[in-house]
Amino acid sequence: MTEDEKVRLRALFACIIGMLKANGEMTVRVATELEAVTQAVRGLDPTFDDVVSHRRKDAREIGDPAIRSTLAEYDELIRRVQNGDYL
What we know:
- The chain is mainly alpha-helical.
- The protein has 2 helices and no strands.
- The chain has helices at residues 3-44, 48-82.
């Protein structure tokens, strides 16, 4: 690998890590806001926990297959990169 290729690869890794950092920050911010809303609603509606628990179960039944599919696509992409399919 030439020095120029190493420099470009380092820049790519830095960019990817920056995107992961931004994604992590966004996830924490969304979770914090969601918790604040949850606490506010819980104070207004005593049945909130039961309703949310039921809706969460329904959402997981719908969302879990999509999550598994998306993660499988990422796993395949990682495998292809590790095998050198993209370099």
